[in-house]
Amino acid sequence: MYQRYDAVIVGAGGAGLMAALNLSAQARVAVVSKLYPIRSHTGAAQGGIGAALGNLEEDHWEWHMFDTVKGGDYLADQDAVEILCREAIETVYELEHWGLPFSRTPDGKIAQRPFGGHTRDYGKAPVRRSCYATDRTGHMILQTLYQQCIKNEVHFYDEFHLLDLLIENGRTAGVVAISLATGETYTFHAKAVLFATGGCGRMYRVSSNALALTGDGMAVALRRGVPLEDMEFFQFHPTGIYKLGILLSEAARGEGGILRNKDGERFMERYAPSLLDLAPRDMVSRAIYREVEEGRGIGGKDYVHLDLRHLGREVLDHKLPDITDFVRTYMGIEPATDLIPIQPTAHYAMGGIPTDVDGRVIVDEKNTPLPGFYAAGECACVSVHGANRLGTNSLVDILVFGRRGARHAAKFVRENDWAPLPANADERAQHLVAERMNAQGNEHQGAIRDLLRDEMMAKASVFRDAGRLTQMRESFHEIRERYNRIKLEDRSVRFNTELLELIELGGMIDIAETLVEGALARQESRGAHSREDFPKRNDAQWLKHSLAYKTPEGMELRYKPVTITKFEPRERKY
Amino acid sequence: MKVTLKIKRFNPEKDEKPWWAEYTVEAEPTDRLLDALNAIKWYQDGTLSFRRSCMHGVCGSDAMLINGSNALACKVLLKNLGEHITVEPMRGFRVARDLMVDLEPFFDKYKQVKPFFITYSVTPEKERQQSPAERERFDDTTKCILCGACTTSCPSFWANPEYIGPAAIVNAHRFIFDSRDEGREERLEILNHRDGVWRCRTIFNCVEACPRGINVTRAIGEVKKALMFRKL
Questions:
Q1: Cα dihedral sign for A308, A312, A313, A317?
Q2: How far is residue B177 from each of residues A317, A319, A398, B225, measured CA to CA in Å?
């Protein structure tokens, strides 16, 4: 099937829908998404969206900017962070104007609460900056954006799975996707393509991420010669439900929750004396790993407790109702009276497809754009999160840069014609499908997926060293070899979810490899990348972004400088 | 524990009618039903087809008929289902394949109620004011994830597919009772129809089916009341 649009957006979470809203009035746009839009993982975000509204106490976007830069261990590009924090404010008001049901202060304003790493006056004490709708902020954002898309009659292709990005003579020509319902491949010829395909957190055993988060957009871009930036920085959220990894929002600690080890000790006092349990996520996750390692996990196991008992039922039921429900449903315990077993859970890729502040994808260390290709949200790396993202900033990121990417793309499609489609545009996609459909072998898909996730968890998660990373690099040989022997049982054309899962897994292996290569090369500890053999940050050598390229000879790494404007790197203490 | 799952299968490419497949899975009592379905798909039978994503009850992909009641497969634990579990697709929509139904008619009905914020007054520079009590008034219906569990558990909907259904009414309620919204009359008019709210017979299946704990029947009752008293 051939379809022609001015612009195609791939992915219908917060970034994709925000881009659609900003593009659809000015151009003919299609949104292609493997899930129904409201199933996207933006809906799982809980605690809030950060913006210095100052509704409850003094706050400034400059303070937000400082926290974001420091939280990211000075790897973020500060020009981009400034845009993020300035535009956060108008973005939150825009959401409210679209009807988003924020929780309210007694005097009727948008309610705000403290969150990890967000402080007043450049680090003095926690500040109430997270604008929230109970603990369902992401759900409300996703619903509100989808509602506005219905109002604006945005054209959706629901349950269409991305297979390929088309590039012809250095210009973007469109994408190829497969319809789940019919199994047909569609070639979308477009002047501009915007990827908003989300993260890749399913490469780890314990993960807060939806099964859909397999990094499809990143993998497709990587295979088409686009690098991935800063992939070695992957965030583990401190409070996932033990074993399941289901997220328990940082808002639980924002409302006063406390982490305790087997002795009942509030151990964060030893790791972050001023921010305590509201230290940034990388630090809290490391603290939990240390406690466990030193024998202070609960019952000698690999978890600690989140204590919400003192918050009272009123706060639990009104400010944290969803996570209270998750704890009751999945653990069978009562947060008002019981301690909650938690462990760090794979949560967020700071890295991704490199872009500038207008969402344009750049392909080298000189920031050369690939005309017509845009990316926004978790699949992209602007970089506003640097080496570690602060809570609430992903929701800001998807909206601010979803909008900016769309605005630039709108201009681009006005000024440019369609790039000619390459001959046999869908050939590679067809080949990929045929190759998987005809795969012969004796391996079960689950075994390879589990192998990847277990290995990544053991060798490339919170703490890393050369030994384990090298072993992980070796494991990819086995993983790839066995992947090629997976037998596809489902030979149906329609609704072949097994085929799509297999394609997802193939892409995820590539992405995991960029992470491991980047982590092995970076001989320092910064933000979420913590090397036990190189425990210190090393600005002289490593204050730079990595770019990972997939080449026929293997992964190639290049580096580009960090943009520093207002805040010179300093030691990061809380 | 060992559990046996009896799953209703149908692949329109090769089956003339639905049939039952049986699988045995070794699992933990605290596993979700979705974990068992994934175990089958990834290790036993890759052809088993169902939708899923978030795995913790917020994306709404995996509503299905489990032991005769609608629920999300990721929100019920095996220990609460017994050792013999039957799983079928939701009732009332065309089965696309196995546990997946055609959701297009469901979303079409949702779109009928103008499920978006409507205002005619001037937009303020900052936020519109709303008191905590006004916000609380429609909190329950903001929770809807459009999974379809309520609508496909409703006998009035089974009997009459023209019925707009509880999910669409819940989403209209979310705006009708929002003090900031100015589209109340338009929405009420859409629902003031034989196949609108009046088709509801207060059977309460929807309340039991809702994985988000929304009191759907009460919301529908409030819309009915708003319709009866709006001209007074």
A1: negative
A2: 21, 21, 29, 12
Region B104-229: CATH code: 1.10.1060.10
Phi, psi of B135 (to 5 degrees): -65, -40
The yes-or-no answer to whether B2-101 and B104-229 have a common fold is no
Please give the class, per CATH, of domain A238-345: alpha beta
Angular region, A160: left φ>0, alpha ψ -120 to 50, beta rest: beta
> Tokens for A272?
């972050």
Nearest alpha-carbon partner for A427 in A437, A419, A435: A435
Domain B2-101 carries which CATH code? 3.10.20.30
Which tokens hold the place of B104?
Answer: 């297009």
Instruction: List residues bridging with B43 in a β-sheet.
Output: none
Among A101, A144, A212, select the one facing B135 at the smallest CB separation: A101
What CA–CA distance (Å, rounded) separates A412 from A373? 10
**A496 chain-B contacts, CB cut-off 8 A:** 49
CA–CA separation, B46 vs B11, rounded Å?
A: 13
Q: Do A321 and A135 meet the contact criterion of CB atoms below 8 Å apart?
A: yes
**Residue of A375, A387, A404 whose CA lies nearest to A349:** A387
SS (H, E, C) A178-214: EECCCCCEEEEEEEEEEECCCCCHHHCCCECCCCCCC
Q: A104 in contact with B at a CB cutoff of 8 Å?
A: yes
- In 3D, which of B117, B104, B99, B130 has the Cα closest to residue B37? B99
**What's the rounded Cα separation, in Å, for the pair B220 and B222?**
5
The fraction of chain B above a pLDDT of 90, given in percent, is: 98
Phi/psi-derived region of residue A396, left when phi > 0, alpha when psi is between -120 and 50, beta in every other case: alpha
Q: Which H/E stretch holds residue B86?
A: strand B84-88
Provide CATH 3.90.700.10 ranges for chain A. 238-345
Q: What phi, psi does A391 have (nearest 5°)? A: -55, 145
A281 noted as active-site residue: yes
Q: Does domain A427-534 have CATH number 1.20.58.100?
A: yes
User: From the list B46, B77, B132, which residue is nearest A488 (CB)?
Assistant: B46
Alpha carbon distance A236, A393 (integer Å): 15
Place of tokens 């299905």: B64
CATH number for the domain formed by residue range(s) A1-233+350-421+541-569: 3.50.50.60
Structure tokens given for A289: 């790993």
Q: How far is CA A509 from the centre of its chain?
A: 17
pLDDT tens readout for residues A39-57? 999 999 999 999 999 999 9
A36–B175 CB contact, under 8 Å: no
Residues of B in contact with A248 (CB under 8 A): none
Chain A residue nearest residue B54, CA to CA = A210
Cis (ω within 30 of 0) for the bond into A383? Answer: yes
Model ipTM value: 0.97
pTM of the complete model: 0.98
Residues in chain B: 232
The shortest C-alpha distance from A367 to chain B (Å) reads: 35
pLDDT at B230 over 90: no
The residues spanned by each domain of chain B are 2-101, 104-229
User: What is the number of residues in chain A?
Assistant: 574
Helix (H) or strand (E) holding A341: strand A340-349
- Residues 6+ positions from A378 with CB-CB distance below 8 Å: A15, A198, A199, A348, A349, A352, A394, A397, A398
Quote the crossing angle between the two packed helices A137-151 and A393-415, to the nearest 10°: 20
Contact partners, residue A304, CB within 8 Å, separation at least 6: A259, A260, A261, A262, A267, A288, A291, A292, A296, A297, A298, A341, A342, A343
List pLDDT tens digits, range A72-93: 999 999 999 999 999 999 999 9
pLDDT score, position B231: 55
